[in-house]
Amino acid sequence: MTILTVSNSLNVLSDLNGLLTKIYPDAEIIREIDPLMAGKYSFRNAVDMVFADVNMKRMTGLQLIQFIKREHAHVLAYLVGTVEEIDDSLAMTTSDDITGTIVYPFTEDTFLRI
Predict the structure, then answer these.
(1) How is residue 106 annotated by DSSP?
(2) Consecutive 10-residue runs of the chain (114 residues): their mean pLDDT?
(3) Which of 27, 51, 83, 98 could join 1 in a cystine, given CB atoms 3.0 to 4.6 angstroms apart?
(4) Which is it for the CA torsion 28, 36, 67, 45, positive or negative?
(5) What are phi and psi of 81, to 5 degrees?
(6) Whole-model pTM?
């Protein structure tokens, strides 16, 4: 399984990758701080899950997820952010591309729903 995690925040990436490593110890976890590079990676490689920060420079998490879904229609895609950021982002879309949302700061219980 390949999991792509994308955020401009190194703290978010570190926390996210730490918990995902515990839950999916055999998964290959790819970290990207640049959403355009994450899009390029997903275009060239198979991706099973993606966790994209809601607010990033150059591209939002929703835009990245929609781009990845064009190549990998069955990818599980999660938006990551604070409750307010997620609410604001979801209010502007009716997209079915999102599998779920992950509220930051994370706890281990956060990922039991995945």
Answers:
(1) P
(2) 97 93 95 97 96 94 93 94 84 76 83 70
(3) 27
(4) negative
(5) 170, -175
(6) 0.91
